[in-house]
């Protein structure tokens, strides 16, 4: 399990689950195969702070938090790879979500 605050600056990932009480902050480039997911569970938070997530399928479950700040980016391989479920909080302060 991840500690309560964890930063990722750049790597290639498999599946990631962000559980309740954990905040994962992305500050660099994180690359994933199109079949890999980042799941933010109820009570978990994902913050992209100037970083980039490239290719991952992102699922923000109800009760989770997801923020993009400081020109952060989410680059999607397909249009169905970004799922912010009802009850999740998504803040696009400064950045973009787009198909690559």
Helix proportion range:
under 10%
Put simply, the count of helices is 0
Query: Any low-confidence stretches, pLDDT <50, length ≥5?
Result: 1-7
Mean pLDDT: 87
> What is the overall shape?
globular
Number of self-contained structural domains? 1
Into which percentage range does the β-strand content fall?
A: over 45%
Classify the secondary structure makeup into a structural class.
mainly beta
- What's the total number of strands? 12
N-C termini distance: 31 Å
**The biggest beta sheet, please?**
8 strands, parallel
As a whole number of angstroms, the C-alpha radius of gyration is 12 Å
Question: What is the succession of H and E elements?
Answer: EEEEEEEEEEEE
């Amino acid at each position: 399990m991840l500690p309560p605050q964890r930063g990722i600056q750049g790597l290639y990932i498999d599946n990631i689950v962000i559980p309740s009480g954990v905040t994962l902050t992305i500050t660099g480039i994180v690359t994933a195969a199109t079949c890999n997911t980042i799941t933010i569970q109820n009570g978990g938070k994902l913050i992209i702070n100037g970083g980039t997530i490239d290719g991952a399928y992102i699922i923000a479950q109800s009760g989770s938090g997801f923020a993009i700040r400081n020109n952060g980016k989410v680059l999607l391989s397909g249009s169905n790879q970004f799922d912010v479920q009802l009850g999740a909080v998504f803040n696009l302060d400064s950045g973009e979500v787009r198909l690559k």
